[in-house]
Design goal:
This is Urea transporter. Pfam families: UT. GO terms for molecular function: urea transmembrane transporter activity. The protein is an alpha+beta fold. The protein folds into two domains: 182 residues, Orthogonal Bundle (Ammonium transporter fold); 98 residues, no CATH class. 39% of the residues lie in helices and 10% in strands. The protein contains nine helices and eight strands. The strands form three sheets. A four-stranded antiparallel β-sheet has the order 5-4-3-7, with no helix packed on it. The protein has a two-stranded antiparallel ribbon with strand order 1-2. The protein has a two-stranded antiparallel ribbon with strand order 6-8. Helix 3 packs across helix 4, helix 4 crosses helix 6 and helix 7 packs across helix 8. The radius of gyration is 28 Å and the shape is elongated. The N and C termini lie far apart (73 Å). 27% of the residues are buried.
């Protein structure tokens, strides 16, 4: 018997086949993820999964076939209800490894199949131990397999697929589209696209590895100015108001959270430098990928806890 839960598991099994064959077993296992081991419940959940993401629905079917097939081949079905209450581990593992935390592709699909097989082996091993104490397997194989696979893949240098999305998991359709755009732009797979932090057309005064101030570790920075007739200021340029970019709104270059801001320093008159506060006022934006984006040399008038794409943060140059 499958522990002390046998008296509760058997009544949950349908008396008459719903569809028949492995379809009933798959739907029952899917329903078990929500503690409703019945093919009708699993069918509703599968329809919702299919509506949300066709790729996740495909992974669910593939993961169950691989995991349950290996389970039946190696064990000959340890217990009639083990496939019902343990089969959802194969489904969830495949969805997590191959769809939520990685960019879709044939390599990530192969990784998900390996994860489903590993989850099946862990199910058999854990079931043999827990059966002695009358404790069900539940989601232990899913958790062990997923955490182990993702931790191992995180140590890998991601120069080729599969690319992991540990910091920003998403639906596979969304992550695939983002990866496609990244490849089209010639950027790195885990790069974060930034938008210009201003309206209109500005010029880059100093770029990466700039000769003036953009030296390591701050070499990856851009300085922007506005020029009219080849000049960045009007009149003699003795006042801050003479510069074309002064007092114009600055926008957030990305979506994130304001991690830190400094708005207490006064504006330096043209030609003067505050050597004690070289960076001046700034805004530090924490991205969803745990990277940081900084907007320097700005006087912050007001800042919210959230930063949105192309929404003015209401701070001046």
């Amino acid at each position: 018997a499958y522990g002390n839960l046998s008296v509760y598991l058997f009544p949950s099994a349908p008396v008459e086949p719903f569809v028949g064959g492995w379809t009933d077993a798959f739907l029952t296992a899917l329903g078990s993820a929500f503690f409703i081991p019945h093919p009708v419940a699993g069918l509703f959940f599968f329809i919702g999964l299919l509506w949300t993401s066709r790729y996740l629905a495909l992974l669910a079917v593939v993961g169950y076939l691989v995991g349950d097939g290996l389970l039946q081949w190696l064990s000959g079905s340890i217990h009639p209800t083990l496939g019902q209450w343990g089969g959802f581990n194969f489904i969830l593992t495949t969805i997590a490894v191959g769809g939520i935390f990685s960019v879709p592709g044939w390599r990530s699909l192969l990784l998900a199949i390996i994860a489903a097989a590993l989850s099946s082996l862990i199910t058999m091993a854990v079931q043999g131990v827990l059966q002695v104490y009358g404790v069900p397997v539940l989601a232990i194989p899913f958790l062990l397999t997923t955490l182990t696979m993702l931790a191992a893949m995180r140590k890998r240098v991601a120069t080729t697929p599969p690319y992991l999305l540990l910091e920003a998991p998403a639906l596979p359709e969304h992550s695939y589209e983002r990866a496609r755009l990244v490849r089209a732009r010639g950027a790195e797979p885990e790069s974060v696209p930034l938008r210009a932090p201003f309206f209109g057309s500005w010029r880059v005064y100093q770029g990466f590895d700039g000769p003036h101030t953009h030296q390591p570790p701050w070499q990856h920075a851009l300085d922007f100015i506005i020029t009219e007739q080849g000049r960045s200021f009007r009149n003699a340029g003795h006042r801050l108001q003479d510069f074309h970019c002064f007092d114009l709104p600055v926008l957030s270059p990305c979506h994130g959270t304001v991690a830190r801001c400094l708005d207490e320093l006064p504006d330096n008159p043209p030609g003067e430098v505050d050597s004690n506060n070289n960076w001046g006022n700034f805004l530090l934006i924490r991205l969803s990928t745990s990277c940081d984006s900084r907007v320097w040399h700005s006087v912050i008038i007001a800042c919210d806890r959230r930063v949105w794409h192309y929404v003015s943060m209401a701070f001046d140059n």
